[in-house]
User: What shape does this take?
Amino acid sequence: MKPSFPFHLNGRTAVVIGATGGIGTGICQALLGGGASVALVARDINRLKHLERSLEAPRRTFSVSADITDTFQLTQARDAIIDHFGSIDLVVISTGIMVGSPFEDAIPADWVSMIDVNLHGLLYAAQTFSSDLISAADAGGPSDLIFIGSLGSHVQYPNFSVFTAVSAAIAQLSRTLRSEYGRRGLRVHNIEPGFTRTDFGRNLNHEAARAHWRHLEETITPLDPADLGRIVALTAAMPTGLNIAEMVVLPTEQD
Assistant: This one.
């Protein structure tokens, strides 16, 4: 795959967790386009293999299945990636689920599932790969940890109160880790998309939440996951002394 950017990621080794999601796939395409090698991580190995074939870069891609909520599986995935590529200096965490309803109608078990994936899973994944990223920074090279958060950390969406609260927690985590690791050369970023063309909101159970999602679909031209991928690649390709710390990315029509 030929680089499609005026900058490069040649020599970088990336891990994309949530690779088979719409945004995750866009990120994989962009990182490969910039010249990086990319480890694809998601739960479904069949979808991973299909994605790997579609990317048409067999020497620079490697697929490994892991559930982000399972620390043992994440550690096994990390070890397999190190065995295959030798090092890791870029980790992108692009996983999440969304549930929504009026607060009084919500099912607490749904909150637990969402918090387990969106927050606990992100914590587990970031910690699993943190030593590799610190080692890359200590060696003097670029090193990046990128969270794909949500516009929900900044706005109040009725019927999505817990989702937005979790999004705000991710934003604060990124700020604190940036303070903890920045002086050691590890850059921490939080990229927060608005309405994006994915299946993210298609499985909402409550009619109030579905109505909100339908309104977005009817009134806003969504972001293209490929464009979000390019933003991730741009973020990682910045000079090591420059950190794009937080970026909110919106469709022009979204307020």
Summary: DSSP finds seven helices and seven strands in the chain.
